[in-house]
Amino acid sequence: MLHPDHQRCRELARPDVFNFSVSVFIVLGILVSYMPQHYKIISRRSSRGLSPLFVLLGTVSGTASIANILTLPESTRDMACCKEIGKFPCAAALLGIAQIGVQWTCFFFIMLLFLIFFPRSSQPVAEEEQDTNMPTWKEAVLVLALSLAFFIVAFIGSIVFVYALPSHVRGWANFLGLLATALAAVQYIPQIVMTWRLQETGSLSIPMMCIQTPGSFVFAASLAARLGPGGWSAWGLFIFTGCLQGCLLAMSLWFLWRDGQAQKSADRNTVNGHGTARENEQTPLLRGDS
């Protein structure tokens, strides 16, 4: 069903080494940027601080994004060219898909870690003592169920449009892109609200956001150069997420600085009021009296 554009295939057969290197760097950068978040949840053995809506919307948005780029006519045209060009040019041509695929995989793993390390009390807590800011176990399970349900819908729908309704595939791809963009735009709002209510970052990784916030704009520029204006529904997503993630990062850095200042102030009060410095001044006198 996929018919290669021979002129486009000839262009892809001569990949630019610089663009290839940049694309590979972005793929590795995406993978590395998510590692601090994976590590923080695993090391803390808790996903406290992550909003269920943030995880759900991020997972569904990522699924819609990968389905979008896989069904875009520009992407299917490039994939069809792999039959005519060598392995290296084919790999270079599909790096844009690989970038989004790696990002989706990494966020899907966050969703699994969120469920595995979801904080649950071993003893029943009285209703009035429960923290209303914290999500429940049922909400965490619902995140998994809805994420898997949307994955199935997007997978089946993409197959139907690509192979059975090819004349409407761009409309389906643009719908997925718009959905991914809309969910990504809303995704960080519940996380910003939860972080503000908790007044701490919890298991949310600041190093991850430090890497991803500027990386989102680099990623968007890379996809725009590869797909052109016709792929706006793919690269526009990352401009939205970069701006919103920057707001969350600024809030998290403020809490980190505030807590650091509070800790320094507490340490000074301890030393001056009841701590080591006062004891060092009095110790010789006490020894002399004895």
TrEMBL record:
- Region feature (Disordered): 266-290
Membrane topology per the entry is: Multi-pass membrane protein
An example Gene Ontology cellular component term from the record?
Answer: membrane
Cell location: Membrane
Could you tell me the keywords of this UniProt record?
A: Membrane, Transmembrane, Transmembrane helix
Q: What is its main location?
A: membrane
Q: Which residues cross the membrane?
A: 20-37, 49-71, 91-119, 140-165, 171-189, 235-257
Q: List, alphabetically, the Pfam families matched.
A: PQ-loop
Tell me what this protein is called. PQ loop repeat protein-like protein
Q: Which organism is the protein's source?
A: Neocucurbitaria cava
